[in-house]
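Model it.
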Amino acid sequence: MYPYKTLREEAFEANREIPRRNLAIYTWGNVSAFDPAGGVFAIKPSGVEYDALTPASMVVVDLDGKVADGSLRPSSDTETHRVLYRAFSGIRGIIHTHSTHAAAWAQACRPVPVFGTTHADYCARKITCTAMMTPEAAQNNYELETGNLIVETFKKDALDPAYNTMVLVAGHGPFCWGKTAAESVYHGVVLEEIRKMALLTLSINPLAAVLPDHITRKHWEHKHGSAAYYGQASG
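Modeled.
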């Protein structure tokens, strides 16, 4: 038995989904799982291949950035996760990868317009891309400033992280989150597919128009609105 067993297992299973879902090669991604009651999150250890991971190898970190338990160094992106958990109430899992299509849009510093209903099912607006980090911020604590940049972008654009669960960091890559670590991975997969579709749409028609707002709203509300009818009734 090892400390934080359940939390570590959640983080372990979510990290193992990264290569299974073709979201990253080598060690190009990480997931964390957050326990708000304990004020700690479990995250992938830095530089460890996915096949070598175990639940016990997950590193547990508190919201002050101190390692609460674990013998390995946590992911180099730990500070970004920590900032987001502190700023966005209700999120319980975060994923960051360098998935090909999402990273390409981030490198182009382009938000993703709502071209179709697949996008609208998950986000009723364009998927935001942050501004490029300033030289001053980059010289500070880069990963912490990455988190600050995401939070500042959401404040500036008045975005609710409960309904906008995906973001691009300019020149860097995507971050997604959810109510569990597994849901954050799900959103990471969706994000990658939406960006692939958007790129193909523009390659077919560089002048493609965005989806009309009434269709965007219809698709968003059929899954998320007060009268949502997608899926099965609970109970």
